[in-house]
Amino acid sequence: MKVLEIEHITKKAGRRTLVDDMSFDILQGDVCGFVGPNGAGKTTLIRMITGLIRPEDGNIRIEGFDVQRDRMKALAQVGAIVESPIFFPYMSGQDNLLNLVKLHANIPKEQRAPRVDEVLRIVGLEARGKDKVKTYSLGMKQRLGIAQALLGNPKLIILDEPANGLDPMGIRELRNLILELNAKHGITFFVSSHLLDELQRICSRFVIIKEGKLVWQGTQEQWQQIAGSISLEDHFVEMMTS
Fold first, then answer.
1. Do 125 and 143 meet the contact criterion of CB atoms below 8 Å apart?
2. Is the model's pTM score more than 0.85?
3. Helix, strand or coil, per DSSP, at residue 63
4. In terms of C-beta density within 10 A (0-12 exposed, 13-18 middle, 19 or more buried), how is residue 108 classed?
């Protein structure tokens, strides 16, 4: 089943084309790595998927709902961290989430606090939920960001450079959390990152773009087959420089 459908999406800024007639699908259960150099159009596309900006042409569907025509139904299916998660540092992680859960109209008032406790448990922050966010490490803030993305019980979670600034332990914790949410909760992930080695550890599928255009999509096994004896990182560099 297709969780995310990108059909002939184009986005321009003045005379410059940021995303050029891009099409691909993400299937249920995928952990998809979204890869490309700086300025390739990754964040622009993510902002269109999450309804923050509109494309000039094309359609985006999440769980079959068109982001432009059925905005509320489409965005109810997705949770996202675009760039770094932002929280009130002098409030606890729990109180931050209790404020944010009010944005989800599908969660009745009496279920808000239990849902916050549930997502804190899922991301391993139940013991620190009442501590102020200013006392959290960067890795804990990223996990709190994923807890925020989980509040609405989404089918798809989008992460834009989630490992930025994390130390090796934080990256490992993030990796394990993504894999656990995918395996135990069936959540599909769309992860934009420059850390190709890390994406290899978690991704079943890749979408690779360059200068706003799709240059390759497929499974990790397919990518390894075409790369041959060349490392995937070296093969990616060849694709970007050819």
1. yes
2. yes
3. coil
4. exposed
- Identify the bridge partners of residue 13 per DSSP, sorted by sequence position: 16
Residue type, 146: I
Q: Write out pLDDT tens, residues 205-235.
A: 999 999 999 999 999 889 888 877 777 777 7
Contact predicate 141/81, CB 8 Å: no
pLDDT tens for residues 94-129?
A: 999 999 999 888 899 999 999 999 999 999 999 999
Give the other-Cβ count within 10 Å of 225's Cβ: 10
Cβ pair 203, 212 in contact under 8 A: no
Provide the token pair at 122: 């899922």
DSSP string, 179-235: HHHHHHH--EEEEE-S-HHHHHHH-SEEEEEETTEEEEEEEHHHHHHHHTTS-HHHH
